[in-house]
Design goal:
The complex is a heterodimer of chains A (501) and B (651). With 501 residues, chain A is mainly alpha-helical. Chain A contains 24 helices and 2 strands. The radius of gyration of chain A is 22 Å and the shape is globular. With 651 residues, chain B is mainly alpha-helical. Classes of the chains: A mainly alpha (501), B mainly alpha (651).
């Protein structure tokens, strides 16, 4: 029998996390063990890419066993071109988060690292589940470690932030559960593929579409259910922000691809204007809001929302492209652009939050006004932060460009005005990111805190350096990523225009 | 061949990486040696390619280097198109870059960021080469944005100065406005042709005539006009055409070598190059050509006028760059693309020369840039003076200089043109000649002639710059004189571009011009009698009268004509509008959306509001649970009665 890779990337970190908890606060045991587990998980996930068959849209690395036989709930795992890159992103980012938290966390650090490992396993579970109930269990369970991370190691208003985070995402998911159970009753199975094949009338589809929309829109987050994100980010410790931005937001986008589009294609088609409208609002409105933020983390949080707008925009373009041009050409480009944007945003927003973390560890402030002239005392840090900022502003040659470029090209096929509004990100994204760079990094040394800053240490340099390489690699050569996603998204495109009525 | 072209772009990139990442390891000498070597390799190979293309030993190259990605069946590639147009650009870019590299050794010798500077200018050379050598829109956009980023980094090179970091942000954002249009243009190209490859797009272009798109309901616009105008918006940003010109004068905050390289000779001409490269598209849209023509003509005259009131030596040269870019744009507008590229080339030499000469003056003056504190520098800095004079004569189009041939060709081309806007453009380019001569020689006289107005300390230390500075001046002065003579006939009239630039026969003003005569000698004789020459002489004469003979007059003129003078000094209030209206309004809108939209409406009313409702509800519910049995019994009876009543009514 082959190695059950997916089970390994789910359970290795969870069990590892429990071991880290057991190791307690004894010297360095906890963090070394955590690092070891994170690296092992990452290594274990690499074959998902190297052994991946990029010529098929079928599920791969499938594992299947009965779980709760009475309700036909199965332990059913598998990945395709959508979930595989997201799992690799998760295992990759977790390693960096563990390294980044090495010294920053002084109180109960073993519990901190354990939370991240358990969270990692659950997130992998979300991406790998092919059974809707299993998916739902991971989906909800994932909230607990994140709740703990923000609630225990967070900032002063962490209680408000965690409650807001928990209620928002929990309330969103409850309706999804209702929808899942309804479809189980109709199809007699919790298999996601069965839901996708289930014929449904327009009325049912619309109700289910909205149940999903609320659940996923909160996660993405889309305007107007986005206000939990800036608060959560501001209060979360650096590692929490990184995971939140890099992976957890992707759950929403993943949900649209796995559930909304293939399960309720007719409802998606008749309500695509809603998702596109909200996405464009996210790009323009949130871009403007980001411009006036005085807190670096809030600024990056708002920038995340604007960037995720491209994801949802890209996903729903196919319908209006077909209406306008009579063909689907461009629809897959929108889907691919959205997917690349998810991966890229994971790298860039993660790096941006790590950059803020580097400053916060030294000065204990996130306010832009407390900085100025950091480039004088931290030249290496400044170079990297400028790189990530330019990537955040969508510079060609960095990963930030690829997704936005594809989505803008595809949206022109749907409507000139979609492309026009989406394109404003070129100006707004550059404005809010580089204005922050100017105020934080450039100028004379602003105060004694900045004067006494030390440049990146080896550990920080390692983390940011790896991310910088990843951002450049994906920007200069996105072909491998596009290749593994291609067949899956092509099949999805067919599913999403296949009427169920 | 591929390895040859790869070496041309990768040599400066590799040098930039070494100087940038291992700057401390290789030291200052190591940094400048490795970058100069890198650029020299590029220059040598570019010349080899250009000569090979001219004598036919090298064929036009158009091939893929690697596949960047395939999305939805569209192949997006990195690849090179090396024909005579790109080879000319490569040679000009690498030559000026090489000169600037050498010059920088002298100019930046005391700067702590020495290695970083060399790394940036080498990186710039790489990006610019990627731009001009591209065979597709994706790579074009990559190069386009990459040169913008290096420009951003270099304008803000002295990042401690508030003015520098203001200028670089401004430059980047204004360019992004242009790029916004440019990207939409690329999206339009893909929409109509389903390809990003130049040759495929150009081949599909004729079939697009007559195809329309409704951007606003009920208004059918020509697809080609839309594509071309959107692409041109990008050119307006990069090549600083009104109203996206505002960033270029401020970019003078950067060190002078990059003002010469990026903000005069190469990057700012990317827009001109792009439109010439896209000539198979632009030729098919008269509307787009007229837009190009009018914008270019406006820039040519009105930006030149601003040069008259500047006191900072670099800003005078900057406004003259704006004006000359306007001339090139005008050439594109009247389909004299070859003349536009010809002027681009001559301008690259003489304008880089003028900037570097200005830099040489600035070194001697201990980084004083105000011309009112200069004067009489001729005798202290003879090489700088004579080379600057050559540059100035070329700039005003003095007969025989390189600028004469290229500028005259443009003016004559406009003269022959008949597309809408040509009359306006002719007036602009002709009066522009007078204005150019006036501000150029105002600068020459204020800096090198007349009374010495600097303080005693500065005067004591005045001396000619070292050889690393003067050598590039001399090497740039030579082409500023002779390049026109040598190449005029070939480039303008002998089908030099060989299909790389396409002109419809009905638009071909250069061919019409060529019927009268094509040789440099003809141009020279013709030029000595033509209005441009007389206007230039008048301009120089007036400059002499106002700034040497009667230097008290300009101040009197300024107070006499206070209103127009204020308009000029305030640069037609473009900056004021942007900084006092546009930027604050945008920030206020953001603030309003945040405070009212997010905090009051969404968080206040919806989120916390629903939390309050839940709180109130649970409070109300908990009050019902009083613990008294008779309350519960009463409630049960009421409930029972209600249910019975409902059942009765139902049946």
């Amino acid at each position: 029998m082959e190695m059950p890779i997916l089970s390994v990337v789910i359970w290795l970190p969870i069990i590892g996390g429990l071991l880290v908890l057991a190791a307690g606060e004894r010297a360095n045991a906890g963090r070394w063990l955590a690092l070891g587990v994170a690296i092992l998980t990452f290594v274990a996930s690499i074959p998902l890419y190297t052994l991946f068959d990029a010529t098929t849209a079928a599920m791969q690395f499938v594992e299947r066993a009965p779980w709760i036989a009475a309700y036909k709930v199965e332990y059913y795992l598998g990945v395709d071109g959508i979930s595989m890159p997201l799992i690799l992103l998760t295992t990759f980012i977790t390693v960096l988060v563990v390294i980044a938290g090495w010294e920053a966390i002084r109180e109960s650090s073993s519990q901190y690292f354990a939370s991240f490992l358990i969270l990692e396993g659950m997130m992998n579970g979300v991406f790998a589940s092919l059974d809707a109930m299993l998916f739902y269990v991971f989906w909800e369970a994932m909230l607990i470690p994140m709740f703990i991370i923000i609630g225990v190691w967070g900032g002063p208003r962490r209680v408000y932030a965690t409650l807001k985070f928990f209620l928002y995402t929990f309330l969103g998911s409850v309706l999804m559960l209702v929808a899942l159970i309804y479809m189980y009753l109709q199809s007699g199975s919790y298999e996601i593929a069965a839901f996708q094949a289930l014929g449904m009338g327009m009325h049912e589809q619309i109700l289910i579409f909205f149940a999903f929309l609320i659940a996923f829109a909160v996660k993405v987050p889309m305007w107007p259910v986005h206000t939990w994100l800036p608060d959560a980010h501001v209060e979360a410790p650096t590692g929490g922000s990184v995971i939140l931005a890099a992976i957890m937001l992707k759950m929403g986008g993943y949900g649209f691809l796995r559930f909304s589009l293939p399960v309720t294609p007719d409802a998606s088609m008749s309500l695509d204007w809603l998702v596109i409208g909200l996405s464009l609002i996210a790009v323009v409105y949130i871009g403007l809001v980001a411009l006036v933020q005085a807190d670096m983390k809030k600024l990056i949080a708002y920038s995340s929302i604007a960037h995720m707008g491209f994801v949802t925009l890209g996903f729903f373009l196919a319908y209006s492209i077909r209406v306008r041009t009579g063909s689907l050409s461009g629809g897959a480009m929108g889907l691919e652009g959205g997917m690349v944007q998810m991966i890229s945003h994971g790298l860039i927003s993660g790096a941006m939050f790590l950059c803020v973390g580097v400053l916060y560890d030294r000065v204990h402030s996130r306010q832009i006004a407390d900085y100025g002239g950091v480039a004088n005392t931290m030249p290496r840090f400044a170079a990297l932060m400028v790189l990530f900022s330019l990537a955040n502003a969508g510079l060609p040659g960095t990963s930030g460009f690829v997704g936005e470029f594809l989505v803008i090209l595809a949206s022109f096929k749907a409507s000139f005005w979609y492309a026009f509004l989406a394109g404003t990100t070129l100006i707004l994204g550059a404005a809010y990111t580089l204005w922050m760079v100017r105020r934080v990094l450039y100028g004379e040394v602003a105060n004694d805190n900045v004067a006494s800053l030390n440049d990146l240490n080896a550990r920080e340099l390692l983390v940011l350096g790896i991310l910088a390489l990843a951002v450049l690699l994906l920007g200069l050569w996105p072909a491998p990523l596009l290749e593994v996603m291609g067949p899956t998204l092509q099949q999805l495109l067919e599913q999403m225009v296949q009427s169920k009525l | 061949m591929e390895s040859l072209y790869l070496s041309i772009v990768l040599a400066p990139l590799l040098a930039a990486v070494i100087a940038g990442l291992a700057g401390r390891l290789v030291g200052r000498a190591g940094a400048h040696t490795v970058t100069i070597l890198g650029v020299a390799v590029s220059f040598g190979l570019s010349v080899y390619v250009l000569l090979g293309l001219l004598d036919g030993s090298i064929q036009v190259y158009n091939d893929t280097v690697y596949v960047w990605g395939i999305s939805d069946g569209v192949r997006m590639e990195v690849g090179f198109l090396v024909d005579r147009l790109s080879a000319l650009m490569m040679t000009v870019v690498t030559f000026v870059s090489l000169m600037v590299h050498i010059y920088t050794i002298g100019y930046m010798k005391d700067d702590p960021g020495y290695q970083r500077f060399f790394s940036y200018i080498s990186l710039f050379t790489f990006a610019m080469l990627m731009l001009v050598m591209s065979n597709n829109f994706l790579q074009l956009f990559f190069g386009w944005e990459a040169v913008g980023v290096v420009s951003y980094l270099l304008i803000g090179f002295w990042f401690k100065r508030p003015s520098a970091v203001h200028a670089n942000l401004k430059a980047f954002l204004v360019n992004r406005v242009g790029d916004f249009g440019f990207l939409l243009g690329i999206a339009a190209v893909l929409y109509f042709t389903n390809s990003l490859d130049y040759q495929e797009v150009f081949a599909a272009a004729p079939a697009l005539q007559g195809i329309t798109i409704e951007v606003f309901d009920g208004h059918a616009w020509s697809a080609l006009s839309l594509i071309c105008i959107l692409l041109f918006v990008g050119a307006m940003g990069k090549s600083a055409q009104v109203p996206l010109h505002v960033w270029l004068p401020d970019s003078m905050e950067g060190p002078t070598p990059i003002s010469a390289l990026i903000h005069a000779a190469t990057m700012v001409t990317a827009g001109i190059f792009m439109v010439a490269r896209m000539s198979p598209l632009f030729e098919l849209s008269l509307t787009a050509l007229s837009v190009v023509l009018v914008i270019g003509a406006t820039t040519a005259l009105f930006m030149g006028l601003l040069g008259l009131v500047q006191n900072d030596i670099k800003r005078v040269v900057a406004y003259s760059t704006l004006s000359q870019l306007g001339y090139m744009t005008v050439a594109l507008g009247v389909s004299a693309h070859a003349a536009g590229i010809f002027h681009l080339m001559t301008h690259a030499f003489f304008k880089a020369l003028l900037f570097l000469a200005a830099g040489s003056v600035i070194i001697a003056m201990h980084h004083e840039q105000d011309m009112r504190k200069m004067g009489g520098l001729r005798k202290y800095m003879p090489i700088t003076y004579w080379t600057a004079l050559i540059g100035s004569l070329a700039l005003i189009g003095f007969p025989g200089s390189s600028g004469f041939f290229s500028k005259d060709a443009i003016i004559e081309a406009v003269h022959f043109a008949s597309i809408p806007g040509a009359g306006y453009a002719y007036v602009c380019v002709l009066s522009g000649v007078f204005v150019t001569a006036l501000y150029t020689f105002r600068m020459m006289f204020l800096v090198f002639h007349g009374k010495e107005r600097m303080d005693a300390h500065t005067r004591e230390h005045l001396r000619e710059s070292p050889w690393v500075v003067t050598l590039p001046l001399i090497l740039l002065a030579i082409p500023s004189v002779v390049i026109g003579w040598l190449t005029e006939e070939t480039i303008l009239f002998k089908n030099y571009f060989d299909g790389a630039i396409q002109v419809l026969p009905s638009h071909d003003v250069l061919a019409e011009l060529g019927q009268h005569g094509t040789t440099p000698a003809y141009f020279l004789i013709h030029g000595l009698l033509a209005p441009p020459f007389l206007l230039a002489v008048a301009g120089v004469g007036l400059a002499w009268y106002l700034y040497l003979r009667r230097p008290e007059i300009p101040a009197r003129l300024a107070s006499r004509f206070a209103v127009p003078y204020r308009w000029l000094v305030n640069k037609y209030y473009f900056d004021d509008f942007n900084e006092k209206v546009l930027a604050p309004a945008t920030r206020a809108l953001g603030q309003r959306l945040w405070r009212t939209g997010d905090e009051t409406l969404i968080d206040g009313a919806m989120v916390n509001g629903s939390a309050r409702i839940v709180g109130w509800l649970s409070g109300a519910v908990s009050r019902v649970q009083t613990g008294y049995l008779y309350h519960y019994a009463f409630a049960m009876i009421i409930g029972l009665a209600a249910m019975l009543g409902w059942l009765l009514l139902e049946s």
